[in-house]
From TrEMBL:
PANTHER family: OSMOSENSING HISTIDINE PROTEIN KINASE SLN1, TWO-COMPONENT HISTIDINE PROTEIN KINASE. The chain crosses the membrane at residues 15-39, 51-71, 110-129, 149-168, 180-203, 209-228, 248-268, 274-294. Its EC number is 2.7.13.3. Keywords: Kinase, Membrane, Transferase, Transmembrane, Transmembrane helix. This is histidine kinase. Coiled coil: none annotated. It is an enzyme of class 2 (transferase). One of its GO terms (molecular function) is protein histidine kinase activity.
Length: 716
């Protein structure tokens, strides 16, 4: 068995040796080719131009020496000499690069450090030569190995320090010329640093890692080729945010796996008799934690914030943000969300906010709920943002951080008044006003994201641009709806023209019948024909009136004192045969209204509530007094309506969800209530039901409402 293990070890070493020879030979060819190509262009490197081709040739020789030593399995002294020569000549290159901008004369430690590193290399060569002439046993051989590795570590660490100072201390105008040479030398010595560190810790030469030293020389070759290129200033590594995030994620996962394996190995050594069980249990637990934690939204958000903060000059990739915004806001097709939800999503995606609301002006100018996006549980009052609190936002476009407002950290000059339902809910994070031509057309409310951070100038600039763009979309959509409504009115007028034509024909028939009656009224045949004509005309008129009777012009004949309880009783009498309608509460109060119009409004609302509810679901009608108004409430637990439907379709004429409906019932009800100096409000949730509130002024306050209406007309 021991013999088999030895043979397997030799085969593995031979395999890695072959890989190393392939990389070393490839690196030698690339270095020699670059040195020949670079010689006519050496002036591009200034005072270091004459040394760099020589350094490339020496490094190519070192690659050949390492490859030949691996192939013939000879002594290690010749490769050691070649590596020392490689390090020494690259130290000369570094000094020449310092001299190219004159820093070798102003930075005193440069020459002593390079001299010290050269001395260490020469001392290492001398000791290495002496040890190669002495027969060593196992313990002394290990001491000699550790000695060689420590000397190499000193030189590689010193070389990396020099390269760092070479680039970091260079003037800004010189850095483009030093970027690629510094990267190439850093890769070469960083690979050696890891190689010799692992060799020292493992107390053996890591053949598997050493086989890839040729790869470091290939990187060195590519960097100096880029440095000598005529367009080197344009050759900059500009990874996209997606590539950077994915690469960094892979590195995090790789480090996690390496750490997990290292801890598992340590547990296998320290676990005693249960080493295997402890190792497997730890691997299982660590894997489960990784599968839960690494894909989480919070970890991804933290990685993106960290990378953006430390790797990029700007927080946002503006091209990607704009493309994402246009994809979201411009979605088409049956599967696309309503415009209001797309508006919220397009703004929320900037901060990876999970939910949001859109508030837009209502009939009275107060902001009301227009759309929800992933936020069905938050309770929004009918008046979400009063008119008097919008002035500062409309004038300045102020983007409010609710955490600052709760902590009292708002700007001293900011006249901000935020409703209690926003500040009282810790999930509400930010308010973004949507201003179009100095007019507030809406406001986006964002929920708190997983990773919360303070707004900075980039956030404000991007949100203002997106807010203006979103506001223009909303204004354009409102204009299109107004045009569509105007078109529907035009269509309605054309239909009325046909109705008028029918009435004109009937009127002509009556006129003709009246003239003929004067001449032939005494004839039995004429009288019989006249009765048929009158009956047909009467049927046509009744049918026409039946179609039009439910749609008035929104006007009332006159306002008078009406007992509201009698109107409610009359409505209940109309629905006496339907047990669904329940009178919940009633008070005796007089209102200034039109009895017929008020009854027509309530009948329409109750009938709609019945149509929207199941047969076993009750519809409640109540009458109460609220301030200076009487409040009629119609409440049902039917299918309900979405905020988008209430906002954009409920009170729009000629829009109906009923088959054969004309679509002006709700519109006419609201106009009748307005004509009685009242108002009609609605609150509805899909799947929960609807509540319609009709406010009509009581008789004692009619003079006050009349005075207010007159003043409004004078102002207008």
């Amino acid at each position: 068995m021991e013999r088999g293990r030895a043979l397997m070890g030799q085969e593995a070493t031979g395999l890695w040796g072959a890989v190393g020879v392939a990389f070393d030979l490839t690196g030698a060819i690339a270095l020699a080719t670059l040195a020949i190509w670079l010689w006519p262009r050496r002036e591009r490197f200034g005072s270091a131009g004459g040394v760099i081709p020589a350094a490339l040739f020496v490094t190519a020789g070192w690659c050949l020496t390492v490859a030949s030593a691996s192939a013939v399995v000879s002594g290690v002294f010749l490769p050691s000499v070649a590596e020392s020569a490689r390090n020494l000549i690259w130290l000369v290159v570094v000094y020449r690069l310092f001299a190219s901008d004159g820093r070798h004369a102003t930075i005193a430690p440069i020459r002593p450090v390079i001299a010290a590193l050269a001395f260490v290399e020469m001392l290492h060569l001398g000791v290495d030569f002496a040890l190669s002439r002495v027969a060593l046993d196992g313990q002394l051989l290990q001491f000699a190995f550790d000695f060689n590795v420590l000397f190499r570590l000193l030189v590689t660490v010193g070389g990396l320090v020099l390269v760092h100072n070479l680039y970091a201390g260079a003037p800004r105008e010189v850095r483009p010329a030093l970027r690629w040479p510094a990267v190439g030398l850093a890769v070469l010595w960083a690979f050696d640093l890891n190689l010799y560190t692992i060799a020292y810790l493992a107390a053996r030469w890591p053949v598997e890692i050493a086989a890839f030293r040729g790869v470091a020389t290939l990187v060195l070759t590519g960097c100096f080729a880029l440095a000598a290129a005529s367009n080197r200033d344009a050759l900059r590594l500009r990874p996209s945010r997606a590539v950077t995030f994915q690469t960094f994620s892979l590195l995090v996962i790789g480090f996690y796996l390496v750490a997990m394996v290292a801890v598992a190995q340590w547990l296998s050594y320290a676990g005693g008799n249960f080493a295997r069980l402890i190792e497997l249990a730890f691997l299982t637990l660590a894997s489960a934690v990784a599968l839960v934690v690494l894909p989480s939204r919070r970890v991804r958000g933290w990685l993106k914030v960290t990378l953006t903060k430390h790797f990029f000059q700007h927080r946002y990739d503006y091209r990607e943000e704009w493309l994402r915004f246009t994809r979201t806001i411009g979605s088409r097709g049956s599967e696309a969300s309503p415009l209001g939800e797309r508006v919220v999503q397009s703004v929320a995606d900037i901060f990876e906010s999970p939910a949001g609301l859109l508030l837009t002006p209502g009939e009275q100018g107060d902001l009301t709920l227009a759309a929800r996006w992933n936020w069905p549980e938050i309770e929004v009052p009918a008046v979400a943002f009063p008119l008097h609190a919008q002035t500062y936002f409309e004038r300045t476009g102020y983007i409010a951080d609710l955490d600052d407002l709760r902590a009292g950290l708002a700007l001293p000059e900011a006249d901000i008044e935020v409703p209690a339902w926003l500040t009282g809910d810790a999930r509400v994070w930010a308010l973004i006003p949507l201003v179009h031509y100095e007019r507030l057309v809406g406001m986006v409310v964002l929920a708190r994201p997983q990773i919360v951070r303070k707004f900075d100038w980039e956030d404000f600039d991007l949100l203002r641009v997106f807010g203006q763009q979103v506001a223009s979309y909303l204004a354009e959509n409102a204009s299109q709806q107004a045009l569509a409504e105007s078109s529907r009115f035009e269509d309605f007028h054309r239909r009325i023209a046909f109705v008028m034509h029918d009435i004109k024909n009937l009127a002509s028939q009556f006129s003709l019948l009246a003239r003929n009656a004067e001449l032939h009224a005494d004839k039995p045949a004429f009288r019989a024909d006249m009765l048929v004509t009158l009956r047909n005309s009467s049927d046509k008129l009744n049918a026409l009136l039946a179609r039009l009777s439910r749609y008035g012009n929104g006007a009332v004949d006159k306002l008078e004192q009406v007992r509201a309880s009698e109107v409610v009783a009359s409505v209940m009498e109309r629905f006496r045969a339907n047990p669904q309608v329940v009178l919940a509460q009633i008070v005796d109060v007089e209102v200034t209204a039109n009895s017929h119009s008020l009854e027509q409004v309530l009948v329409h609302l109750v009938q709609n509530a019945i149509d929207a509810s199941k047969p076993e679901s009750p519809v409640f009608l109540s009458l109460t007094v609220e301030g200076l108004t009487a409040r009629f409430e119609v409440l049902d637990s039917g299918c309900g309506m979405s905020a988008e439907f209430v906002r954009n379709r409920l009170f729009k004429p000629f829009v109906s969800t009923k088959n054969g409906g004309f679509g002006i019932g709700a519109f006419e009800a609201r106009e009748l209530v307005r004509a009685m100096r009242g108002r009609l409000e609605v609150e509805s949730r899909e799947g929960l039901g609807s509540r319609f509130l009709v406010y009509v002024p009581i008789s004692a306050a009619s003079d006050i409402f009349q005075t207010m209406s007159s003043q409004d007309q004078k102002v207008a």
